[in-house]
Design the sequence.
């Protein structure tokens, strides 16, 4: 780890202020972490899996609240890189799954209130998330992630915040570097048996780099209606509209010139994205009796995406996708006893469908300049069945197990078969995935666990679209990647105010899907065998005087094996060998003040399969703080944040295997946000 001595000294001085501040002494106790990873509420301490929960305060306090990468950087096992431009989603991967993704998030399943933001083929769209409304985030890694379907290297479940018992309205205004501005208004409460949460936000920024100005408007409505004493229907509606210029990646020579510049081709072609998304979901929960609960989820949505891409100089193309999607899930949870010992079992069936009307139109300087060169209908649908359960064999042993069967069909219909050859074709995948785990309760404060399972990662519709870089397709030779996933770990409450977790994992994958080239058209292929092994360690402690410390470390050795077409032992690009996050925080309740110093370290990362180009490691610090005052029914909060406190020059994210060697997406130097929020309780 490289770090400037002066910067380190200054950081330690800031951190020491937290410890030496004259604050009234108060000792806190860590509360238990309740999660729903097994589809029923349980204390995460008793689960045989690596799972972390990000609380509302982390999501909200002094944050921009525009991308998931803001909140997930502290979760071990997760790589969450902010591209620092809004034309593409943030890079989110779990134990290396999804590291290659150039568009959207793949290899990680994403949900809000049980409603999927991931499509049947495994591609996810985290940009649909309205972080203003999220109460907490659960992040699961390891074998049990497969119980959520194909392409589940990890699962990110978000839950909207609980509505208050009395009506509440609030407004938030934020300003920051690079002409950043954000306004939001929210209303929430309960009235006549209906709980509601309404939010609208507007975001605008000139962007750190050239050709990166962007704007986004977003709205969310959540309504919960108690139909009877044992039945509740929740409706969740989400909408956003976005316009963002795309600066593209830079070459190594570009970086030596300026971190702020955009790709010359992207400027000439006026690369940008225009997208909108509307989704509505329903979640019906019914308690049948003391032993049985029924849950029915259904959703429908529509997404339009127009992406102007450069093909060289001012020449480009407008890649248009008009997507309709819908799905449903029905599950039953039963509680009972076997051999006088309690068990819980959940069985369900899941269905999802997506229909993409896709076209490519030639463009010059960002203006469509000809007829469509591609006109296709792409469809994918899945139908899955699963059973998952827990049996407490005795006071010290819990057994968890599950099995899921997935069937996915994909079809491409080419409406211009004479342009790039006949691109019509279909494929299907069928797989049964088992998983089993156990928890040994060594003491009331120390648990050990182990689990093993299979994984199943299917190609996305984007990945089967083209068989070569000239636009021919589809690529129906791609096979799904299959994995054997083993994890062991321990969870320990060292005291009432200190806890620590450790997880060790080994994942062997066959038919790893990799980027073959990414020029005019990105193509993919199977690369053979890979191995991912590593460790995740996290620890949290609450000290006297309202001081808290948190640290998380991830070690990931993700490599190609001898059975692949790459040199044995070479790294899977986009995976960081080491990641470290640390935070020292302080609260002074009498004056409503809180502050925290964050540190983040990412090791060197390779950007192509050949491992011939890489990005250096970096260490950055951030400082945040806020004051909160209450005046009768009013609450006023002023907040500020400084990122990259010591003005480090670094590359924040990478574009894996870019054919033009434009691998690098630089991050900004020192930058800031500040804002004020006012809320009124009735």
Sequence:
């Amino acid at each position: 780890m490289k770090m400037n001595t002066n910067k380190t000294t200054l950081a330690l001085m800031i951190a020491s202020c937290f410890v030496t501040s004259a604050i009234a002494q108060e000792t806190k106790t860590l509360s238990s972490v309740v999660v729903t990873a097994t589809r029923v509420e349980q204390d995460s301490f008793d689960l045989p899996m690596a799972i972390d929960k990000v609380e509302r305060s982390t999501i909200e306090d002094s944050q921009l609240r525009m991308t998931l990468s803001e909140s997930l950087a502290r979760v071990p096992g997760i790589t969450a890189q902010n591209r620092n431009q809004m034309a593409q989603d943030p890079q989110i991967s779990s134990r290396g799954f999804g590291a290659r993704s150039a568009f959207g998030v793949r290899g990680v399943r994403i949900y809000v209130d049980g409603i999927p933001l991931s499509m049947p083929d495994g591609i996810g769209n985290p940009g649909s998330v309205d972080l203003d409304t999220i109460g907490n985030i659960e992040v699961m890694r390891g074998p049990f992630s497969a119980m959520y379907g194909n392409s589940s290297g990890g699962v990110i479940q978000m839950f909207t915040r609980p509505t208050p018992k009395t009506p509440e309205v609030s407004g938030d205004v934020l300003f920051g570097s690079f002409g950043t501005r954000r306004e939001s208004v929210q209303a929430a409460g309960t009235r006549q048996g209906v709980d509601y949460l309404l939010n609208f936000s507007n975001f605008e920024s000139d962007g750190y780099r050239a050709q990166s100005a962007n704007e986004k408007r977003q709205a969310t409505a959540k309504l919960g209606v108690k139909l009877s004493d044992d039945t509740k229907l929740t409706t969740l509606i989400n909408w956003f509209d976005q316009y963002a210029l795309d600066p593209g990646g830079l070459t190594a020579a570009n970086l030596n010139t300026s971190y702020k510049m955009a790709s010359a081709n992207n400027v000439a072609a006026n690369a940008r994205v225009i997208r909108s998304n509307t989704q509505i979901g329903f979640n019906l929960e019914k308690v049948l009796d003391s032993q049985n609960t029924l849950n029915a989820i259904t959703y429908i949505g529509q997404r339009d995406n127009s992406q102007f891409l450069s093909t060289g100089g001012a020449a480009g193309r407008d890649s248009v996708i008009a997507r309709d999607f819908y799905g449903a899930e029905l599950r039953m949870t039963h509680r009972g006893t076997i051999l006088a010992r309690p068990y819980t079992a959940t069985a369900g069936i899941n269905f999802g469908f997506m229909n993409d009307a896709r076209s490519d139109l030639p463009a010059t300087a960002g203006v469509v300049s000809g007829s469509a060169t591609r006109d296709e209908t792409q469809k994918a649908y899945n139908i899955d069945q699963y059973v998952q359960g827990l049996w407490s064999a005795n006071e010290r042993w819990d057994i968890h197990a599950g099995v899921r069967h997935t069937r996915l069909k994909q079809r491409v219909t080419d409406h211009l078969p004479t342009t790039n050859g006949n691109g019509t074709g279909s494929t299907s995948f069928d797989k049964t995935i088992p998983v089993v785990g156990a928890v040994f309760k060594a003491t009331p404060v120390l648990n050990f666990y182990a689990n093993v399972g299979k994984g199943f990662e299917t190609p996305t519709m984007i990945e089967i679209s083209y068989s070569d870089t000239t636009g021919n397709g589809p690529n129906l030779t791609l096979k799904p990647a299959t994995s054997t996933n083993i994890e062991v770990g321990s969870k320990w409450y060292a005291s009432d105010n200190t806890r620590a977790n450790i997880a060790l994992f080994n994942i062997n994958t066959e038919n790893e899907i990799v980027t073959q080239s990414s020029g005019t058209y990105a193509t993919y292929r199977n690369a053979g065998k890979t191995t991912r092994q590593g460790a995740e360690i996290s620890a949290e402690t609450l000290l006297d005087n309202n001081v808290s410390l948190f640290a998380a470390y991830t070690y990931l050795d993700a490599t190609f094996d001898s059975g692949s077409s790459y040199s044995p032992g070479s790294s899977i690009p986009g995976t960081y060998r080491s990641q470290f996050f640390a935070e020292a925080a302080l609260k002074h309740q009498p004056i409503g003040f809180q502050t925290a110093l964050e540190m983040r370290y990412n090791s060197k990362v390779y950007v192509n399969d050949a491992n011939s180009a890489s990005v250096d490691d970096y260490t950055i610090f951030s400082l945040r703080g806020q004051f909160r005052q209450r005046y009768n029914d009013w609450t006023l909060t002023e907040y500020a944040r400084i990122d990259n406190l010591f003005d480090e020059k670094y590359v924040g994210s990478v574009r894996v295997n870019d054919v033009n060697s434009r691998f690098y997406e630089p991050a900004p130097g020192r930058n800031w946000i500040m804002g004020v929020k006012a809320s009124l309780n009735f």
Q: What stands out?
A: The helical segments are 5-20, 56-60, 69-72, 252-257, 264-268, 461-464. Confidence is low (pLDDT under 50) at residues 1-27. The chain has one domain: 5-33+227-681. The radius of gyration is 25 Å.
